Write the structure tokens for this entry.
Amino acid sequence: MSQSPVARRKRDDQPANGAAPEPGDGPSRDESATAPCPVCGRAFPVSGRARHCSERCRKKAWRRRRTPAAAPASLPAGIARRPVTVYECRACGTRRVGEQRCESCGTFMVRVGWGGPCPHCDAPVAIEDLLDVSALSTGPTMAPQHTKSRGATTTSKGRRA
């Protein structure tokens, strides 16, 4: 019994006319191709399913994937400034702690600064009232004046030789 030759099925990527595909049309089978390592960026020859250049980079990538993401940095809760702020009415001079509207005039008061009630008389006192603010100001200061004595020589850094 002789068998007749079986017609072979053509590949899907071959043109219908039976011509061979153009070079570069099909998948690359370049054995000497290199790929960058996703961890260190170094180029390495690809072999099989390898995605990293070394065991060290493979393990480092695994640790990066498995390590939980750090919690986002949260800001500390701020303190409410209004309850510790002293306000003063421009019209009648009344001071209040934490209240911005004058009860007697019905107008808004201006901020004096941080403070609270006086421990002795319970009157509103600002911290600035207790401190000498002029001593705390950082205005221009006078630099001490140095005089050179005659005959003394100095180096390039201003030191005496």
